[in-house]
Amino acid sequence: MISWKNLDTVPAYKKMMALRGRVNLQTAMAGESGAQRVKKYAAPMAAGLCYHYAAKQVDGEVLSALKELAEEMQLAEKFEALYNGEVINTGEKRLVLHQLTRGQLGKKVMADGVDKRTFYLGEQKKAADFAKKVHAGEILNAAGEKFTTVVQIGIGGSDLGPRAMYLALENWARQNGSLKMEARFISNVDPDDAASVLKSIDVAHSLFVLVSKSGTTLETLTNESFVKDALKNAGLDPARHMVAVTSETSPLAKSRDYLAAFFMDDYIGGRYSSTSCVGGAVLSLAFGPEVFERFLAGAAEEDKLAANPDPLQNPAMLDALIGVYERNAQGYPATAVLPYSQALSRFPAHLQQLDMESNGKSVNRFGEPVSYVTGPVIFGEPGTNGQHSFYQLLHQGTDVIPLQFVGFRRNQAGMDVDIQGSTSQQKLCANVAAQIMAFACGKHDDNPNKHFEGGRPSSIIIGDQLTPEALGALLSHFENKVMFQGFLWNLNSFDQEGVQLGKVLAKRVLAHETDGALKAFSDLMDI
Amino acid sequence: MISWKNLDTVPAYKKMMALRGRVNLQTAMAGESGAQRVKKYAAPMAAGLCYHYAAKQVDGEVLSALKELAEEMQLAEKFEALYNGEVINTGEKRLVLHQLTRGQLGKKVMADGVDKRTFYLGEQKKAADFAKKVHAGEILNAAGEKFTTVVQIGIGGSDLGPRAMYLALENWARQNGSLKMEARFISNVDPDDAASVLKSIDVAHSLFVLVSKSGTTLETLTNESFVKDALKNAGLDPARHMVAVTSETSPLAKSRDYLAAFFMDDYIGGRYSSTSCVGGAVLSLAFGPEVFERFLAGAAEEDKLAANPDPLQNPAMLDALIGVYERNAQGYPATAVLPYSQALSRFPAHLQQLDMESNGKSVNRFGEPVSYVTGPVIFGEPGTNGQHSFYQLLHQGTDVIPLQFVGFRRNQAGMDVDIQGSTSQQKLCANVAAQIMAFACGKHDDNPNKHFEGGRPSSIIIGDQLTPEALGALLSHFENKVMFQGFLWNLNSFDQEGVQLGKVLAKRVLAHETDGALKAFSDLMDI
After folding, report:
1. Residues of B in contact with A195 (CB under 8 A)
2. ipTM rounded to 2 decimals
3. Which of A43, A218, A263, B218 could be A315's S-S partner, Cβ–Cβ 3.0 to 4.6 Å?
4. Regions of chain B where pLDDT drops below 50
5. Where are any strands of DSSP class E within A11-96?
């Protein structure tokens, strides 16, 4: 029987809090003991990835407390309830089913009178068939020519995840002959965003994927109009250039304005929708359905690991527990995500939404204020770029910021250059290994300005290459990490009421129904 | 006489700390009093911009304490010393002269036997003349054809600032007939970065700008080789396609491998180099020298305001003081930068370097540990995109994160669409006005999950349009803000020793001179 309770109500919480400051990373990671930790503190993931946490501030004692915490907080049971179709999004009274878009972890889940796994597979197949027809030249533009570009119109979860996934695989696909169509993304209501994308493409050979679950997202509908105007101005029929990804009940679902419509539902939150048709349509068009299926397979394999009740064999659960130890026991305010892969340039922005929108909350799932801190600030840029930027603060600033590295042994594009006895890829890999140790152990210098205190914890996920499977596993890892942290903090990680007030006030501004400071600011903005 | 002293040694510090929690934003910003604050709490900037701080947690009392702090910490005198050429980068025993690239605020500054203003102007003119010749077709490729694309090769300050500035003006320039050449940027040592850029351009018509002050930056030299290989493979002579931006003493300075070389010096840190030739070469090639001069003029005008000793008439100083109040008295750990302009999509990444690399330090300029927190984490994405992402945490998370908005009344590209009675630009502007008020005042709801506490401070810089002048003013504002905060925390904001250890260890990894955990991680990465 599941009991939803606050983090600070279980015995292991006190145990964990008492272990604050327990591990001295500088000594733990030094010499042979450090090498032993690297061997010992590793949890295999799917698709050949591995989560390494040797440079985290943990030891047997801390891990044992975290394992107790996982049991007392019933993390595995709660995940089981989720994938078996219980109402986990309690505020909105919804199931949480994004894992079903890539596999069946538990029982058959029925909702809206259908088997939801069958439903998601069906929509995926519709998108796959559509993409194949486009690639085969069975669906053409009015002039009988093939489409060469796909443009996703969406915002938030309909943009950040799919965009990050596209960029992650673009070079890989080009190298492997799978780049069927180039993809672009329009998201911002700033008209310069759409204008800029439209100027960079050939609209006559572009397919637009409009993504809005409700069919009412202001930014997305505005940008749709923008695009339709551009198509009409070019003498083209918008209905021959657009498809929709939406819910079956949305006004877009049955519209004749689209070549096709692919459906999602209320059980998949925007930020968890990359493996649904929200990601599936654009990624199948860009790379072909086979590549998208490989991506899903990687995520499904990783989801299975997340069902293991032993955190030491469940990297997402372990990552979540260590993150809570860092946030609540150690008191660290932020986490940096640092992929040593240019292909993952927008992956941190996706995780920023995934994490901060899920767990940036102050009341528990019953609406009661919690008396502990919850989700941290998430930010990051790819290495080695970040090394020449904000790493100064990470190494020598007054706050400790835990780090989440990601690295691959091989690059994607198959081009490299050997300079001073090493390839670029080797330099990249050497840098991430070096950073982990520099952060953990620091280095004494008699000049205090050149002194590195160390004691700055990091983990690294290492893989062979960023393939579709590896990307799916990576995505699943972080989705499940965020879910487990939500369970630990007793939050509803699947709603986002915090974005509503701004929308309401913006409508009031546009209707000129304001007074006081809001009117004053509106006047300043000339509205 | 200037006295360099720690923030917590002056009387106004105690006064400021005692004012923690003084202003209740919810009540201060409500009703007519809120409207009055919007009128009163505004500091005009250059290029028609204005810094609005009504929604910050300040009142007469707080501002008066901050003014005393500015006086006791001698902020104006320290800036004066800086622009008059004193050795402000004490650790490295260097002058700090980036303001001289755009104007002469004080005395003539002599160094290395020359008047530095004359030197910077001379290099700027060299870059301008070169750009004009390229645009006029006087400098052509080997086939006698014009160059159409410029590619900057650099990392850190040689990348983030120039890239952010280029993106900020690309649409504006296209609309105003000033887009002479499209620009691309290669930065990461990840070989997929260069591969990806090279695949997106026509190398035969591309000019490459290699930027490295020392001429020894690993990533940049590696990427240069990568590019040279690509040029040779295409049957082209690299020396006809490359220019260098470097110091006069670097190995690149006199090399015959470049069509031209433009010089910077040790008095301009990478993150402060956008207005030097580091930004000047690529921006003059992309937009023409006249646009770059307008950008410099905006920065110069804003620099003048920063010399005013009265913080109420010095927006950069005021912004810095309020930031220190938020960080040290209020205890906030991070600051979000939120431009409501897609053109500023990489501006937050530039500020992240500028701020975190300058002030992410734990020892003062004499190498003594400070007993207060210094630079915060800086992160951000453009609105309205961020609203659909991490704003959830900003509105309802357990930590308060101060916000720095930027907004413009008009867009750049001159295309817009009217939906539901308003243009996209009006929607964009309405949203930023609405967000300020939602963060400040919140809104009571009986459902605790839909309740907004408010009390989350923000400022906004408002301008008419993101022109070259406005961009220059914006850049100068933040450079000077960071400088003043460095003075307040008594840091040397102009060195970056925290990036060295990682470089040293990476070299050791590549030389296979490692043991312990570093060897273990290197083995895992297959090096």
Report:
1. 171, 413, 415
2. 0.97
3. A43
4. none
5. 42-44, 50-52
